[in-house]
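Worked example

This section walks through a single chain of length 223. The input is the sequence exactly as stored; nothing has been trimmed or padded.
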Amino acid sequence: MKQIMKGLDLSVYQRGMSFTIARDKGYKFAILRGGYTTNGGVRNRRIDQEFAHFYDKCQKYGLYSGCYYYSCAQNYQEGRQDALFLYNNCLKGRLFEMPIYIDVEDAYMIRAGRRFCTDAVKGFCETLEALGYYVGLYTGYYIYTESMIPSELVRYTLWGAWWAKNLPSKFSALPNFQMWQFSGGGEQIGSYGVDGDKAYVDFPKIIRQNELNGWKEVLHGKV
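Given that input, the structure is written out below as tokens.
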């Protein structure tokens, strides 16, 4: 697969990272954690404390931006609620050139089982797709193939995590695989170790041409 561009994914844990250094090193995009669900005895939805700041930095320094939500949803309705929380608190009123993802890695979500985990992803993705967003899921290869039903999720872009020097053929063989998280904290941006990602399709072109992720309103002069 041919790499189109390289980027980073960021959350509050990278607070203080230099966007100047990231831009000068050739990173073209950042996928920002918009929010997350706590996974203790009481589950609550929270906004990432650095999301708005990081989004503004992407705008200032010319990095394409996307967004992800760290989910603990265990069924369709909870996935839908995650999507609406993200939309109302992070997406609405902002433009994104990269996809919007549900992050599937928490044990609380996975142990719901293949059927319910898949339904949670569908609840998230179908809700945001209906609102005009280009959506997908982030997860590891084995979580995707063993804890979900891939045939029901193939319409959604897959951002796969596998920290290695070379792209695993297992991922590249999946029909919806389009972005790879190849490094967990291995990209050095000043004093920060940041996750590295490689995109294999031109997401900004696709999203703008199809007037998704807020671009419809901008292109037709409604904002």
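What to look for: The beta strands are 5-10, 29-37, 45-47, 64-70, 100-103, 135-140, 157-161, 177-189, 192-199.
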